[in-house]
Each structure stands twice: as C-alpha cells, then as structure tokens.
Amino acid sequence: MALLEIDDLHLFMRSFEGEAHVLNGVDLAIDRGEIWGVVGETGCGKSLTGLSVSRLVATPPARYARGAVRFDGTDLLRLDEAAMRRLRGRRIGMIFQDPTTNLNPVFRIGEQMVDVALHADGADASVLGLPSGASRRARKAAARDLAIRMLDRVGIPDAAGRIDDYPHQFSGGMRQRVLIAMALIGRPDLLVADEPTTALDVSVQAQILRLIHDLVRQDGLGVMLITHNLGVVAQICSHVAVMYAGSIVERGPVRAVLKNPTHPYTRALIAAIPSAATARGTLKGLAGSVPNLIHAPQGCRFANRCDRALPACREGRPATVEPSPGHRVACNNPAGEAA
Amino acid sequence: MSAVAGNIPSSAAAARLQNWRRGLYRFRQSWLSVVGLAIVVLLLVAAIAGPWLVPYPEHVAGGINTGARFKPPSAQHWFGTNELGQDVLSLVVAGSRVSLLAGLAVVTLAAIVGTVVGAVAGYVGRWVDEALMRFTDLMLTLPSLILAMAVAAALGPGIANMVFAIVLSWWPGFARLVRGEVMARKEEVYVQAARALGASAPRILFRHILPNIVSPIIVKASLDMGFAILTVASLGFVGIGVKPPTPEWGVLLSLARGYLPDYWWTAIFPGCAIFLAVFAFNLLGDGLRDVLDPRARR
Amino acid sequence: MLRYTLRRIVLLIPVLVGLSLLVFTISHLLPGDPVKLAAGPQATQADIDSLARELGMDKPLPVQYWNYATGLVRGDWGQSVLTRRPVWDDLKVFLPATLELVFAALAFAVIVGIPAGLLSGVYANRWPDYLSRVVSLGAISMPRFFLGLILQLVFAMALGWLPLGGRFPIIDEPPPALTGFLTIDALAAGQFGAFWVALQHLAMPAIAMSLSPLATITRMMRASTIEVLQQDYVLTERALGLSQKLIVFKYVLKNAMTSSLTVIGLYVGWLLGGTVLVETVFDWPGIGLYATKAIVSQDFMPVMGVTLAIGTIFILSNLVVDLLYGLLNPKVRYE
Question: Whose CB has fewer CB within 10 Å in chain C, the N or C terminal residue?
C-alpha cells in the first residue's frame, strides 16, 4: 500500500455555464521517498488534484462524483473535518506558487510558523516532544525554537534574528524558503508543492528546487510536485505523471517516460521544449485547444488534437499499455517503442 | 476623419448596452432593489397626486378641526389626528412632496456644480486642479449639517434658501468623484484619438468624456437622494428652513415631540415616513450601482 | 517615521489657515448683521456703531481676518455677541461632552460592527449575511433624531429605565473635572455611583449616534473580510491545518480591520458635526446644541468657533488614521 493513492477520482465543478467534469478518473500512487512530478498545461486539473489531497477544494461549487483519495489507507474524502485538519500541516504539508502572496502580510513570520507548529503538535505531541502536561507557554517557546531550527535548515541566514521580521522584509526566494520551512515544520510524510518555483527569478528557481530535493531526501518524504515545466521534472523528480484535460495520460519513472514518451500528448509536450540545439523556426506548438469540459467528448479527450487518433479513440476510454514496468500509458495507438 | 472619431464611441455604446442588459438582470435578481424601486414609485405617486388622494385635503392646506384633537388611529383617521385635529395621514402623504422635491433639487444642483468643478479640475489639471481640489477638500472638512443650518438660518425661511444651503455643502463629493473619473478617462484611447483629430477641449469633455462617466454620477445621485431627504428633514426638525404649517416630515416630527408619550402616533408616522423614504432610495441606489457600475461589486 | 510625522504636521499649517479663511469668508458673505442683532431692537445707529467699534467689526475685512486669525492662535476665538462670553471658554466646556458622546458611539459601533461584519463576510450570501446587510442598510437610513425619540419613548417614558436627557442630574455634584469625560472622570475619582449615572445618561444618545458608523463599519468589514478570505495566505493557513476559528479571528480579522480602521478614524470628524440632532433630542450639553442655539440667534462667533473646532479635529483625526494605518500595516513604508 502506497502512502498516497488517488483512485479513479472524478470531480465536477459547477460554474456559470454549467457543470464541468474537471477531473476525469485520476489514478496516481505516491510512496515515501518518491518525488512525483505532475505536469500538464494550465487548466488540466493538476492543481485541483493537489488540493484534493488536502481536501481544500470547496464543495460546493465542486463535487466529488466518484473515486477515493487514500492516505495511509484512509479515504480522505470520507473523513470528518476535524480528522482531516489533524492531517494538514502535520502529515501533509503544502507549498503554493507565489511566495509574495502566501504569507500573511500583517503577521511576523515567526507568529505564523509557531501557530502551524502548535497545531501540528496538537495533532501529534511528538512534533515538539514535550510531556503531555506542558504549559502553553512552554509549548510556545518550544514551537519558536523549532521554527528557528526550521528556518536555519531551509537556509535563512541569522534565523534567530529574522524570525520576528515581516514577510515584506524578505526577498521572493527567501519567502519561499520560509513557506517551505512552514510546510515542513510538522514533519509531514507527504509534501504537495504546487508550482513552487514558477513565480521566482530563474536564478533562484534552481536553489529552491535543490533545497526541496535535499530536504525531502533527508526525511524520506513522498512529494507531489505540480509544475508545467518538464525541465523541473527532469532535474529533481523520480517519477512523472502527465495530465491532460482531467486525466493522467502517461506516468512512470522519470527516466522511462522522458526517454521513451509514448502518449502522443507527452511527445508533443516534450517536442515543444526549446533547447540550444533547436533550429530557428522549428519550434513546435500543438494545434487545436483543450476540449470544453462542460460538454466533454466521449472517449479520449486528446483525440481532437491527436494526429494518431483512431475511430475507437472517440468511443470509450482508451486502453492502458505498459511499455516498461511501472510506465503506464492510456492510449489506443501509442507512439514510441511500445507501438 | 470625423467618421473615424465617430466610430469609436459607437462601439463603446454597444458595450454600454450590453452592460445595461447584464445590469438589469442583476437588478431583478436582487429583490431588495425591486422593493426599493416599488417604494420610490409609491412616494412619487404620493408626491405628485398626494393632495388629491388624501382623505382630508383641507388639513394639508392648513385647515384645523379643534373638535377632533389627538384622536388615536382609527378607521376615520388611520394615523390619528394631531394637536390641531388635523389628519396625520393626510399630512404625512402631503409631506412627501416637500421632501422629494427638496431632495431632488439638492442632488441635481449639487451634481451639476460638482460635475463642472470636477470636470474642469480633472481635465485642465496643473494649478487649476490643485486650486480647485484644495478648495474642495477644505469644504469637505466643514461639518456639513452645521454649515447648512447656519446658511439656511442666515438666508431666512423658505424651501429655496434651504436647498441652496444644503447644496453648498453637498457639491464637493460630486466634484471629487467626477475629477477622478475624468482623470481616468482622459488617457483612454478614444479621447486621445479625438484630441489627435483636433477636437476642442470643451467638445472632448462634453462629447467624449462626460457621456462615459454618467453612470457613476447617477449611482452617487441615487444613493445621495436618501441622505438629502434626511438632511431636509433634519433641518425641519431643528426648526430651520421649512416652517409650519408646510407639512414637512421633520417639522411634523418636531411638533409632535412635545406630545410624547401620550400621543405617540403624531410622531411615529412622520418618522416612519422619513425612514421609509431614505431606506427606499438606499435600496434603489444599491441596486443601481450593480446595474451601472459593474466595477464596484459588493 | 518620525520625520514623516513631523512633515505631515508642518503641512497641516496651510490647511488650517485655509480652513480659518474659508470659515471667515463664508460667515461674512452671509446676509444678516450680527452687530445689529446683538445691539437689540431698541438700539440706535450710534449704539450699533459703537458696539461694532468695540467688537472690531468696523475695520476692513482683511484686518478683521488678521485679528481673528491671530486671536485663534492666542486662544481668543472671539466672543458670543449675545452672552458676551468668550467662545474658547464655551468650547472648553461643551467640546468634551460632544467628544465623549462621539467616542462612546464609535466604541459601540466598533464593538458591534467589527464582529457583525466579520461574520457577515464569513457567511457571505447565507442568512447571517442577509440579516446583517438589511439591518445595516436600515441603520444607515434611520434618522438619528427619530431613533432618539423612539428610544426615549421606550426606555425613558414607557419603561423608565434610563433618564430622558441631559448629561448628569443637575442637583448632583459631578465628579471632579479631569478629562471632561464624565464617565472617565468618575472612574478616576473612584465614584462608581456617579460613573453608573453618567453611563445611563450616555447610553441612549450614544446608541442613536452610532447607527451610521455601525452600519458603515459592518459593510466595510464585510467587504474586506470577503476579500481577505480569497487571499492566497488564507489557503496556505488552511492547508497547514490552522483551525477556522484561528484563521478567522486572528489572521483574517487583523487584515480586514486594517482597512476598516480608516473609516473609524474618518468618522470622528464626521460624527462631531452630526451630533447636532441627537444633542437637541437628548438635551446633551455639547457643541451641537451650542451651535444650534447660536445659529438660531444668528450669533456668528460661536458658529465659526464650532465649525473651526470640528474642521480641525477632522483634519487631525485623518492624520492620526494615516499614522496608525502604518503601524497596523507593516507594508506601508514612510518616505
């Protein structure tokens, strides 16, 4: 049993124009020590998948129609709110895209970190490691010490001196470090990072990625790293899942998928990455657009853009092929070596 | 050349129509705005046809009936009678005319003065803007009710004097609003196009800018209407402006004060009339804001 | 911060000069001859002329303004032509009464309005929200003097719980003056009985005054709560397991209050000018009642004094709001 198992997850989202079928049978399993990159273009459902892991999608307007999100064997979608909350911040940590807007601007960073640490300790007293009768004051002091240690671990210079600073006193990269420290302060087993480097300067992105990589390797965390950048995946992920229009079309060990992309969409995605070797004028885009998810087509949702589409692709769910162990592709007419 | 300049606003007009439709839909969605509109229509009917509708028109004209003093509410006198035996219902209905007329006059005049000041300041800019806006800000620091009371008292009784006094403290709000809007529109493409085509400043201001900022002015005017009615009643209540026997709600309320608590109906009904009128215009104004000013969502 | 504060204070001077010039100009543009009024109906032209000389009102207007403005700085705000009492002395008596009323009204508005707006925002478009929106729109529309009358009718006349009006029983000895706020003075002197009596007198007028700030604070607070709840940092706080209670009452509250605070400060000046009607209804001996009496008898100096005092407090409270805003919101940096 893997740490996180997302099983045939279907999510509908009510909107002005109707109900959109935004997650269409997402299947994904993440174990401790694995860093999964979830890639896809904007609107493919990768962020909603990440939010579903912490059950942070507001229902309504959203509605889970089918499937399960099992964490350590428990289906989170059936958990009551109090039990769900005990997992957040303690066993599941989250980092979001824009570090400039994800820290509360009118509170010192220490204050916010201490509250998260106290919450995590409330869910599991081993976080602060104090005896059960410890006073509130002692717990606060311990939480503050832990916050300083965490800031130090994520590479904030003079952590003890900066813990009482406000968010605006840090640079964007430093703020993302603070948010990483805050997400990891409860010693989670799973980290969901939603585009953690997209809003940062290119020069800072690599540092933050390395930091995440090193920290999760030290602690043996399972990671879901949501990104639209295959370069990021290649740098730090052990596995990758490619999403298109609400489903995972291809997934597997990062080496297998990048070396032998088998789904036509994955191939198009890789072909669209410019490299130094790309000749001028040969950069490839993908024709057509993502189908309307309110009246989603039957069958494979990529069929209308796919140059390998067969009549069967428009009928029912595409078949699954497995070009190599663990490398699974949902396609009736796969490209690459499996074909 | 002028055909080109004319084309740009016409597409803007289409967009305005589109906004109108969406706004109207939102207005009907919000039942509170519809309630407000209904009360306002009722008030308008009362103000226009009131003297012919009421059961005792002679009381509105100042007639008294000493035989029927302080009758509590009954089938003959729904709102009872006052210290002069006058039918309170007749007086309250007739009072809508003074309040609505004075309120409308205040808001219209203030909107005109404020728009002129604000438009000139915003369009001309530089020291003209600086001078006009410093003056406007200073006017805003003055306590408006006290200023209106002092001016109305000095000018002597009468509705026109009272309206003038209230307008004196009311225009700066419009001036600020219009200046901001004009400054924002000044930089827009269709204005710059008109300027490049050689349109004169007044033409740009009146043909291209003002038609596009009518909506926020109307929204503010409708929201202000309630408070203008309130201010008129306030002046009447302290005995400045409208004097008895003119049936004005504030005046009626102030006369009734002396007969509390025994003859409460003489005070409650005029007071409720003021509240209802102000409330209705506020509801309406809120709804209109949704219709005309989609940026200012609640 | 200190330099910024000092600069703002220096910049106040031209504004205050402009304010005094404006008040002076308006009062001299108005028809009516205050000297003639003061001299009485039997006075001859000679009597009027000598009174004008005595009051300095025979000089050219610029000279009169100069005398008036320099007098303001020295604490000579002119005198009432009717009572012959210095306006400054009257203001010292009446202004604290009005300020006590205004602060009590604002305190009530904040205590009720901040939580009401917060809950309204948290439960946006559900019944607590609809209730608070209709009530606050009603509160804004309610004439203060009418609410005052209803309160009197119910709590003073029918139930007899609260005094009909006034600030303190005339026959009783008020607590020793310290701040001019009777409630605070009574507490400072340890006279709890007097404090209770003063509070009973204060209750109804303060509630009548608090209606419009209450409604405005509720609406502002609702709007900013809704806005804050959509911020990314609230999602982060939720994602890291903080409870709804902690998020709303600690993290959201402080963010939302920062913008609502501006309104509270602006209301100080605004309410000062709006006490007139409530003071009339409750016979509250403040500047509003003082101004009304002066206006009715066309006694200009007290009216000018009251207008200037309110305008000055309005300007000062705006400054305080700006400075406080910086303290509450660390992102605002002063150049």
Answer: C
Of A306, A274, A267, nearest to A287 by C-alpha is A306
Choosing among C236, C247, C333, which should be mutated to test the A contact, i.e. which has the most A CBs within 10 A? C236
Here the CATH number for the domain that contains residue C272 is: 1.10.3720.10
Inside any domain, residue C20: no
Q: Is the pLDDT at A339 greater than 50, yes or no?
A: no
Chain C neighbours, 3+ Cβ pairs < 8 A: A, B
Instruction: With beta carbons less than 8 A apart as the criterion, state whether C85 and C38 touch.
Output: no
Give domain limits for chain B: 2-296
pLDDT band at C164 (very low <50, low <70, confident <90, very high): confident
CB contact under 8 Å between A182 and C240, yes or no, is: yes
Enclosing H/E stretch for B230: helix B214-237
Q: Which of C145, C149, C272 sits opposite B260 (nearest CB)?
A: C149
Give domain B2-296's CATH superfamily.
MetI-like (1.10.3720.10)
Residue B147 with chain C: CB contacts under 8 Å: 26, 307
Domain enclosing residue C147, as ranges: 88-334
Identify the pLDDT of residue A299: 81
The answer to whether C240 contacts A94, with C-beta atoms less than 8 Å apart, is: yes
Evaluate the CA torsion angle B143, B144, B145, B149 in order and state its sign: positive
Q: Could you report the per-residue pLDDT of C202-257, keeping only the tens digit for each?
A: 889 999 999 888 888 888 888 888 888 888 899 999 899 888 889 989 889 888 88
Instruction: Please say whether the beta carbons of A31 and A219 come within 8 A.
Output: no
SS3 of residue A244 by DSSP:
strand
Task: Report C:42-81 residues touching A (Cβ under 8 A).
Answer: none
Range A207-220 average pLDDT: 86
Contact A195, A212 (CB under 8 A): no
In this structure, is residue C54 part of a structural domain? no
CB B237 to CB C141 under 8 A?
Answer: no
β-strand pairing of A4-14 with A190-194: unpaired
H/E stretch holding C257: helix C253-282
Q: What is the pTM of this model?
A: 0.79
Q: Is C26 in contact with B151 (Cβ distance < 8 A)?
A: yes
In a domain, C152, yes or no: yes
CA C86 – CA C95 distance, rounded (Å): 14
As a residue count, chain C comes to 335
Average of per-residue pLDDT across A151-155: 88
To the nearest 10 degrees (0 to 180), the angle between helices B88-124 and B214-237 is 130
Q: What are the chain C neighbours of A96 within 8 Å (beta carbons)? A: 232, 235-236, 239
d(CA A89, CA A175): 18
% of chain C exceeding 70 in pLDDT: 96
Q: A338, A263 in Cβ contact below 8 A?
A: no
Phi, psi of A154 (to 5 degrees): -85, 5
Mean pLDDT value across chain C: 83
% pLDDT > 90, chain B: 13
Using CA atoms, how far apart are residues C149 and C158, in angstroms rounded to an integer? 12
Q: How far is CA A309 from the centre of its chain?
A: 30
Task: Report whether pLDDT(B2) > 60.
Answer: no
Total number of domains in chain C = 1
Beta-strand relationship, A327-330 and A222-227: unpaired
Q: Which residue has the tokens 């139930």?
A: C159
CB A8 within 8 A of CB A196: no
Q: Does C332 touch chain A (CB under 8 A)?
A: no
User: pLDDT at position C335, please?
Assistant: 37
For C45-64, the three-class secondary structure string (H helix, E strand, C coil) is HHHHHHHHHHHCCCCCHHHH
Joined together, the tokens standing for residue C13 give 């001077």
Contact C325, C97 (CB under 8 A): no
The interface predicted TM-score (ipTM) is 0.87
Q: Measured between CA atoms, how close is C223 to chain A, in angstroms?
A: 18
